[in-house]
Specification:
Layout: E1 16-20, H1 26-32, E2 38-43, H2 46-63, E3 69-74, E4 87-93, H3 102-111, E5 113-124, H4 126-135, H5 137-141, H6 152-160, E6 164-172, H7 177-186, H8 194-209, H9 212-225, E7 228-235
Parallel strand pairs: 1-2, 1-4, 2-3, 4-5
Antiparallel strand pairs: 5-7, 6-7
Helix pairs in contact: 1-2, 4-7
Amino acid sequence: MITIDFNRLSIKPGDRILDVGCGTGRHTCEVFRFKEVVAIGVDINADDVFEAKNRLKEQQELKGFNGSKWGVSAADMFKLPFKDDCFDLVICSEVMEHIIDHKNAVTEAVRVLKPDKNMVVSVPSYFPERVCWTLSEEYRKTDNGHVRIYKKKEIIDLLESVGVKKWEVHSAHGLHTPYWWLKCLVGPSREDNRLVNKYHELLVWDMMKHPRLTRLLDHLLNPIIGKSTVVYLRKEKV
């Protein structure tokens, strides 16, 4: 599931792109599709990094050589192993809501971004996430789960306080929100609910086939119940 809208970004050959908190590599793999870029993913979870590595290897074998390079590493977001001002784009998708010391985390991500270049941050949207917390204590208290819910202004203010300036914001994955509400209602860890499983099949089908009807429905739902808020920012010149 790709949360970032890469059509809003100008990615050029030679760009170095960092996916902070890359997880199993969904956005790192998407970046690697661009021609002649360097796609780097880092995450503190070594198992996720290993899976991301395998996914990137598989993608490289399937798609062939397009001049791009990739790398992944297990790294602490608070101490990224990179020099100042060395990336042309930094992505941080669905990470900030897991981190208690979120200001220092995003400060470090901005440190490695070149001046006048873009950063994209996505977090769960306030209303859909608040409903999930209300419906399920299990969802709220899961290990390594969400420690906060951001209102749109709160996440923008946080990011702009560390040297980047918002130039665009939108919501994404409106079609996914009812699925999570259903899942929270019956119990997040349950796997035997027929309605939840059928909805999951619909979402997988939508992601694989991109049919017009569900894409239109997702587009209409995004401003109302989009599961994620996506913020695009540019690092200010000193």
